[in-house]
Design brief:
Length: 91
């Protein structure tokens, strides 16, 4: 278990530049040790096993071309330049 004395939610909120309300500080004060315990548990996980590359196959999906509605959208746009929508000039 993580020593509660070293966990200061105010310090960590200032370091992360997040303004927390007193209620949020209380919640974080309760949840922070649980979060750190979970990370401690993850650090103990055995990751030394090699992944069997024979069991892996192409894990990416195929690119399937789909019809575009860009031309239909450009038909209803009031102002366009080529295949681009023309908008108001910005300073």
């Amino acid at each position: 278990m993580v020593d509660k004395k070293i966990i200061d939610p105010k310090k960590y909120s200032e370091l992360s530049k997040i303004d927390l309300s007193p209620q949020e500080m209380e919640i974080l004060d309760k949840q922070f040790p649980e979060i750190l315990e979970y990370f401690d548990l993850l650090s103990k996980a055995d990751t030394s096993e090699d992944i069997d590359s024979q069991t892996l196959s192409n894990i990416f999906r195929e690119d399937i071309p789909k019809d575009s509605i860009a031309d239909e959208i450009l038909d209803v746009v009031p102002e366009k330049k080529g295949r681009f929508v023309k908008g108001p000039r910005m300073m």
